[in-house]
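Hey all, sorry for the wall of text incoming. These are the two entities for the joint prediction.
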Amino acid sequence: MTTPAPSRTLDHPRRDAIRLEGVLHALSDPMRLRIVRSLATAEEELSCSLFDLPVSKSTTTHHFRVLRESGVISQCYRGTAKMNGLRREDLDALFPGLLDSLLRAAALQAGRLHEDGRGEG
Amino acid sequence: MTTPAPSRTLDHPRRDAIRLEGVLHALSDPMRLRIVRSLATAEEELSCSLFDLPVSKSTTTHHFRVLRESGVISQCYRGTAKMNGLRREDLDALFPGLLDSLLRAAALQAGRLHEDGRGEG
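and here's what came out:
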C-alpha cells in the first residue's frame, strides 16, 4: 500500500499583483524568452523536462521560477512532472497587446540573428 | 581667454546591436520606466536635470546610462546639460509596435495603481 504523495502547489501572484516591471524583468533573459516563445506556440502545457536549454538543470529551474513568480507562466505538478503554461489570459487582460508585441519582437530578432549567422545558441 | 571644453560624446549601441533582452531589462525598473514615459510624451529632448526622481543623483545617472547603453535613449551634451531623447525610430524599426505597447501597458498600470490609492510614489 502506497501513501499518496502530498499535494504540492506552487505560489503564483494573483492577477492584480502582476507588475509590468516584473514581467519585463522575467523576459529580459534569452533563456526565459526562449521558454516563453515555446509555451506561446504550444497548444497545451509543457513539462519542464521538454526544454533542452544550454544551461544546468538548477538554472533551468530558476528560470521557470522567475517566470512563475512574475506572473508570466503558471506551473503545476502532474504526477512527478512540472507542467508549464503561459498566463496569456491574465497578461492580455492587464496589458492588452503587449504579449503579442513581445513575441513578435522576439521572433523578429531571432530571425535577424539567425540570418546573420550569429545564431542564438 | 577660455579654452573650449573638450567635445564629449557618449557611447551608443548601433541599431543592429540593440537587443530585445537589453531593452526589456532597461524597462524593468520603475524609475527607468517613468523616465521613458516622460520622454515619450515630450516633444523635444529633455535634460536629466528636469527629472525629479525619488532617488539619488548618482542613481539617476545610472538609470539614464542603462537606458542609453541598451539603446532605448540617446544622450548628448548641450553645453553642460545632458539631453535625452527616446530612440523611437530605431526601436520601431527593430520591434514594430513594441514601444507603443509598452507605453500603453505602463500607462494602464500607473492608472490602476493610482486608482487603488497605492500610488507610484
